[in-house]
Design goal:
Layout (H helix, E strand, L loop, with lengths): L9 H31 L4 H26 L4 H24 L5 H29 L5 H30 L1 H20 L14 H18 L3 H28 L4 H29 L1 H20 L8 H30 L5 H30 L1 H20 L11
Helix pairs in contact: 1-2, 1-5, 1-6, 2-4, 2-7, 2-8, 2-12, 3-4, 3-6, 4-12, 5-6, 5-9, 5-11, 7-12, 8-12, 8-13, 9-10, 9-11, 10-11, 10-13, 12-13
Length: about 400
């Protein structure tokens, strides 16, 4: 690990800047793709569910393998290469649209391929950070990354809404492509000493390392309780992610720009959460902070369900719900990530991250299309209530385990 007593170090600032810029583009694209499916391709919640499933499919298919491979590689070159690959893949969306060849199947293929790059990039990025920093700087570093990510999630949907209204959803994706290029060029300028790549790797050793990674996470690491709770959280999050766009645009009949503002409200909440998270964590401890965040998430989804129940309140209620939803995410993530990395040796960092991400995204991939079908058949508000019930169960389940007493170093 190449750490530095200086905080924040110049290397971390460069890493942070690249992450912030590409994150902004990603939020623009996430908004633009959902709007593209609903408005340009005339899709329903079911089609939005398939879009989200395509994003998470690579985690299910490749995630565990990627973790084992990344643990034996230098992580910085992988981050640069996958940034460039994602830039190229996203560029194909406006090109397909220009040549009138854009369809839902073509979009799903591009999204799945881009998601493959994201799997590799995420495994390299998260396992690279402990090599960049002293362990005592991990939680503040994640809080800063979460803060800029929250700012991006605030600006991204609003910018996305403006771009979709001005030039259309396909061209809005161009911005994300350019931000990945910026990230790659910024990271290339970093100089960090990393261990040499592992040699002599065989299929058998990779399979053994995959199994070792899974056993580590769910048996000997002490991460099992938070891991299972996070898997359940992704059930609720997948439901919200699928139904929010058709709920706001169709059920509540708000405009694309208002939908962007709704997304921005979540970002404002996440900024507030990222600002408060270290202070709250020092007073409540890691475990109780994360549990409290799940309670706030539940309240946020309930507020969204109540949108439109009284005349003229729909927009305000959805804004409040998204603010609380973002607040909880902004407060919880830095504690979850730093706790995970503090508990994990360097040789298992990538496998730990990709094992958890793979199962999380696998849950999302399975739940997303089912949530779309359920929303179309059962109704969007009952489906949102189901998500609220899931988040409430996560909070109660964690509170019933010894995890509530965890107090990681901050």
């Amino acid at each position: 690990m190449t750490g530095s007593d200086a905080w924040p170090s110049a290397a971390f600032v460069r890493f942070w800047r690249a992450s912030a810029v590409s994150g902004l583009g990603s939020y623009v694209t996430l908004f633009a793709l959902q709007a593209l499916v609903v408005l340009d391709l005339h899709g329903t919640a079911t089609e939005v569910g398939w879009l989200n499933a395509a994003r998470w499919l690579p985690y299910l298919v490749l995630g565990l393998l990627v973790g084992a491979i990344v643990d034996g590689r230098r992580r910085l070159p992988l981050m640069v290469g996958t940034d460039l690959a994602q830039a190229f893949l996203l560029l194909t969306i406006p090109l397909l649209w220009w040549f009138e060849a854009l369809s839902l199947p073509a979009l799903l293929v591009v999204v799945a391929l881009s998601g493959t790059g994201a799997v590799i990039n995420g495994a390299a990025e998260m396992s690279f950070l402990p090599r960049l920093l002293e362990t005592r700087h991990l939680q503040p570093a994640h809080a800063r990354i979460d803060g800029t990510d929250a700012a991006a999630s605030t600006a991204g949907p609003a910018v996305g809404g403006l771009l979709v209204n001005a030039v259309g959803a396909p061209l809005a994706v161009l911005l994300d492509s350019l931000t990945y290029v910026y990230s790659a060029l910024t990271l290339r300028r970093m100089r960090v000493d990393e261990p040499p790549p592992r040699t002599g790797v065989t299929v058998r050793t990779l399979l053994r390392e995959i199994v070792d990674g899974v056993r580590w996470v769910y048996r000997s690491s002490g991460l099992a309780a938070i891991a299972v709770a996070t898997h359940a959280w992704f059930v609720g999050n997948a439901i919200v992610g699928v139904v929010l766009a058709p709920y706001v645009l169709l059920t509540l009949d708000l405009t694309a720009f208002q939908f962007g503002i709704v997304g921005a409200a979540g970002g404002v909440g996440a900024v507030a959460g990222a600002v408060l998270t270290t202070w709250v964590g020092r007073r409540l401890g890691t475990g109780r902070t994360i549990i409290a965040c799940h309670v706030v998430t539940t309240a946020g989804v309930v507020a969204m369900v109540l949108a439109g129940q009284a005349s003229g309140t729909a927009f305000a209620a959805v804004l409040l719900g998204q603010f609380l939803y973002g607040l909880a995410m902004g407060m919880s993530n830095s504690h979850e990530m730093s706790y995970r990395q503090l508990m994990t040796p360097d040789s298992l960092q990538a496998r730990t991250n990709t094992t958890l991400r793979s199962f999380n995204r696998a849950v999302a991939m399975v739940v997303a299309p089912a949530a779309g079908v359920l929303a179309d058949g059962w109704g969007i508000r009952p489906t949102l209530l189901l998500a609220a019930a899931v988040f409430a169960l996560v909070a109660v389940g964690l509170a019933a385990t010894p995890f509530r007493h965890v107090r990681a170093s901050t």
